[in-house]
Amino acid sequence: MHGYQRRRRKRVAEINVVPYIDVMLVLLIIFMATAPMITQGVKVDLPQAEAEALPEDSETPLIASIDAEGRYFLDVGDNSEQAIDLLELAGMVQAKLRITPEAPVVVKGDANVRYDAVIQLMATLKASGVPTVGLMTQPEQ
């Protein structure tokens, strides 16, 4: 019985990675589908019913306004009655924030303005480096 030797098979010590690849592909598809929904939207801290006034010792606020026709204005302490476009507004806000980075930024919108115009303004302010944006309200009579 010398002629017949039983060979021992070498054990295979590899991990089957195919199920892990399947799980990773499913997760990739889920993240690809949900990522656009997560990035869209502007975070806004809405004022309470009774909004607080700005503190007296704060810097002069930058007031970005939208009138009923959807025209944009920027008031940096002096009354500016000339409408500007969003790119010009962004440049003016960036220049003001370089000088006084702690200056509050407030959005003042007409009650009848389109919601899209307010969102465009807030997105422009965020892209200009404004950390937080306040919404100007009028006290109830």
From TrEMBL:
A Pfam family assignment: ExbD
Topology versus the membrane: Single-pass membrane protein
Annotated keywords: Cell cycle, Cell division, Cell inner membrane, Cell membrane, Membrane, Transmembrane, Transmembrane helix
Spans through the membrane: 20-38
Domain of life: Bacteria
Major localisation: membrane
Assigned protein family: Belongs to the ExbD/TolR family.
Role according to the record: Part of the Tol-Pal system, which plays a role in outer membrane invagination during cell division and is important for maintaining outer membrane integrity.
Subunit structure: The Tol-Pal system is composed of five core proteins: the inner membrane proteins TolA, TolQ and TolR, the periplasmic protein TolB and the outer membrane protein Pal. They form a network linking the inner and outer membranes and the peptidoglycan layer.
Protein name: Tol-Pal system protein TolR
